[in-house]
Amino acid sequence: VSADVLLGIFRNEAGERLEAMDRQLLAVEQGEGDAEAIDELLRHAHSLKGTAGMVGFDAIAEVAAGVEDLLASARTAGALDPTLTTPLLRAVDAIRAAVEGDQVDAGAVTEELAPLDAAARTPLASPAPVARAAARARPEVREHTLRVTARRVDELLDVAGEAVLHRRRLDHLLGGQRSERVREELQEGEALLDRLQHGVLELRTFPLSSIVGPFPRLVRDVAAAEGREVELALEGVDTQLDRAILEGVGDLVVHLLRNAVAHGIEPPDAREAAGKPRRGRIVVRAESRGATVAVSVSDDGRGIAAELLARAGDDDDELVELLSTPGFSTAERVGQISGRGVGLDSVRRDLERLGGALTAKSEPGLGSTFTLRLPATLAVLQVLLVERAGQHYGIPLPIVEELLEGEAKPGEDGGQAIAVRGVDVPLFDLIALLGDRAPAAASDGPVAALHMLGRRLAVRCDSVLGEQEAVVKPLGPLVTRTPGYLGATLIGDGEVALILDPRHLVRAMLTARPLPAPAPAAEPAEAARSVRVLVVDDQVTVRELERRILSGAGYDVLVAGDGREALELLHGGAVVDLVVTDLEMPELDGLELVTELRADPRWQALPVVVVSSRDSEADLARAAEAGADSYVIKSSFDAAGLLETVARLVAR
Amino acid sequence: MDVVHVRVRSARYGLPVAEVREIQERGRITPVPGSPIALAGVRNLRGTMLPVIELASMLELGPGEPGPLLVVGQADGILAGLAVEDVVGVGPTEGDPLIDLPSIIVALADRRHV
After folding, report:
1. Cβ-based contacts of B49 with chain A (< 8 Å)
2. Dihedral angle of Cα A515, A519, A525, A528, to the nearest 10 degrees
3. Nearest neighbour of A478 by CB, restricted to B46, B47, B80
4. Residue A334 clears pLDDT 50, i.e. is over it
């Protein structure tokens, strides 16, 4: 084991121990400094001392020894005096700085601790409550864990991705001639690959709790500096997020926490005067909503000034827009008294880089909530693959409203426009939006109508290749400075397709020129659109089978892994003409999906076909009651039957 | 110091051996619209995205054929392919001008060279 690896391991371990010590010392400060707390602190200090000595971090070993001595004295007293937490926290900070590589004067730190020994040995007047200790968490059953570097997980993900590509090539080579047995084996293989890929993806996710460690300490420090009294609550911290997102999100939450303490929560006297408890409350809450995760920071402070709220109307997005405009109103002074906090523009910018969005809500006098909406994973994305000027591009499926073919007509601003469901939408050449040039695309080529961030636009390309689940690979630091791409994915025979960044498309449409308007003589052709079916099933094989049957019959097919995903696609702007859904699915099952659809005026009349292995009268009745239009039993499932049902419902 | 001798537009340059990982055919390069001219695009290198830099363009040697070979180099933990006309061999510098890969990478990452 090389010295570097050893150091890396020590840094990791020390980081966790220091965080645990922070947490425990803060608990002590709140009056929970019982023997159990001291024991835990002692254990950490002792281990730090030992390991630091082994890897030659003498300064750390010395400070840790000082901390250990003081804690040992406190144990003889049976409780830790809360006034000792501040010097102990300082010592923890010194160790942390040394771990990070700073020069630390260990002698000075231990000299500060030594004289406190007498105080530590003195039993407290009122012993720490026993009930609290009993109420604390029961010992957990520990699972074995492995420490694996993120790079190795990403390598595994690459291999899994390659295996999927290999499988596609094999599929292609076999063509249509394959026996029943070969087909079964291939399906089995595909299911296994799917499990492998998703399994590796899950390895990339971590709970939010892995980054919340420093939050309580931060809130305490900011509150102390600003003269506030604040308690912090953490909710839903077991919510899982992609590592890459998690790394970026920590700083953003810290920023929002600082704002909440310094600009949201009022001074204790002001709170009392307003009839509120002196101590303010801040809640960090994480919540998984299918493919997205919402992380919010709420405070019960003064809220955003009514005048600002009035200007934003009732619109959350507009409020964020107002608050994060740099230099809005006369800046800092207003920032302080309006409770809006500072630096929201940078939070929003960083968040957008992660593919997220910021929203704000507030009630004057009652508090504010800032919510970060994040994709749960950056690693896999459903994309529509298109071709333009000999290159392939992936457009994230959630922003694709529909595919059109047909001629454009003159738009409002002299450019081209195309009718999308009766509304004229500006039409761009895809390559022009990306800031490049190429020979013009055919004027009757396919057009993808896109809808994102409240805007609609259409892009012309040379051909559409269909949808694909894309494993998103980072473009690396050299290319990421070029705006416009979320990453790249490998298609077919290992060719690279760039994945477009919806936010960049919106920015680009404001500056790029739409295609020049056609000669007025051109007769606008009727925009033909294929019928789009949404297939919802949690089993890949069933989903794939249905997708092939339907797309083979000329339908445009979207797929979703469960009801939640289906709803997200629809809420994200996907337009479908019919839904084929399974009943038993995780997250949101088929019946719940139908019920949700029927409750929304947009989808009240959307035909829904249930395909299920449940065949009892009761199940059929329940589906009909929820609002399904047709019911196909899996055991008697055949392609012709499904197609006949779909055709009938679409024609209706 | 040993270097990998490469030829770009008929002139010879040297790349420190320590910074060179491997030599590859140019392969299929996907251009990235909107990126600096010297960045030819990205290429699939065993499942990861390798940025490809047209060395002649980076050195401002004027227009010409794209380099058919890639010298895959690494500096500051960033991997990049340098497209060159030919790879001549490995040996002492022999007075060939040195390619400063870290500076090239920094210049491109900062978009100073557009």
Report:
1. 473-476, 479, 487-488, 496
2. -10
3. B80
4. no
| Contact (CB, 8 A) for A423 and A456 | yes
Q: How far is B24 from chain A (nearest CA, A)?
A: 16
pLDDT at residue B94, as a whole number: 86
E-state strands within A453-505: 455-460, 463-471, 485-491, 495-500
User: Within 13 A of A577's CA, how many CA atoms are on the CB side?
Assistant: 19
pLDDT at site A386: 94
DSSP H or E segment with residue B8: strand B2-8
Coil/strand/helix, residue A617: helix
Least CA distance to B34: which residue of chain A?
A: A435
Q: How many residues does chain B have?
A: 114
CB within 8 Å of A105: residues ≥ 6 apart: none
CA distance A641 to A549: 11
Rounded distance between C-alpha atoms, residue B60 and residue A446, angstroms:
39
Identity at A292, one-letter amino acid code? T
Report the residue of chain A nearest B77, measured CA to CA. A477
- How is residue A30 annotated by DSSP? I
CA distance linking residue A427 with residue A176, whole number of Å: 39
Given a contact cutoff of 8 angstroms between Cβ atoms, the answer to whether B98 and B15 are in contact is yes
Query: What is the nearest CA distance from B3 to chain A, expressed in angstroms?
Result: 24
CA A520 to chain centre: 47
Q: Which residues contact A231 (CB under 8 A, 6 or more apart)?
A: A279, A280, A281, A282
> Are the Cβ atoms of B79 and A476 closer than 8 angstroms?
yes
Closest-approach residue (CA) in chain A for B30: A496
pLDDT tens digits, one per residue of A59-103: 898 999 999 999 988 888 888 888 888 899 999 999 999 888 888
Q: Which of the 8 DSSP states describes residue A602?
A: G
For B81, the closest chain A residue by CA position comes to: A478
Helix axes A590-599, A563-571, angle to 10 degrees: 30
Chain B residues with beta carbon closer than 8 angstroms to that of A495: 28, 30, 44
Q: What whole-number distance in Å separates Cα of residue B93 and Cα of residue B91? A: 6
Closest CA relative to residue A93, chosen from A15, A204, A162 = A15
Q: Are A579 and A606 in contact (CB under 8 A)?
A: yes
The 3-state secondary structure of A405-417, one letter per residue: ECCCEECCCCEEE
This prediction has a pTM of 0.45
Q: Do you know the residue count of chain A? A: 652
Q: Which SS3 state, helix, strand or coil, does residue B71 take?
A: strand
Verify whether the Cβ–Cβ distance A478 to B49 is below 8 Å. no
**Within a 13 Å sphere around the CA of A457, how many CA atoms are in the beta-carbon half?**
25
ipTM for this model:
0.92
DSSP code per residue over A5-24:
HHHHHHHHHHHHHHHHHHHH
Mutation target vs B (from A433, A459, A478, A507; most B CBs, 10 A cutoff): A478
Strand order in the sheet with A608-612: A556-560, A532-536, A578-581, A608-612, A630-633
Burial level of B52, CB count in 10 A (0-12/13-18/19+)? buried
Q: Higher confidence at residue A233 or residue A650?
A: A233
- Label each residue of A309-378 as H, E or C: HHHHCCCHHHHHHHHHCCCCCCCHHHHHHHCCCCCHHHHHHHHHHCCCEEEEEEECCCEEEEEEEEECCC
> How many Å separate Cα A204 from the centre of its chain?
12
Q: Interface of chain A against chain B, CB under 8 Å?
A: 158-159, 161-162, 391, 431, 434-436, 473-479, 481-485, 487-488, 490, 494-498
* Residue A364 confidence (pLDDT): 84
Q: Which residues pair with A384 in a beta bridge?
A: A395, A467
pLDDT at residue number A355: 65
What pLDDT, on the 0 to 100 scale, is given for residue A521?
A: 36
User: Chain B residue with minimal CA distance to A165?
Assistant: B47
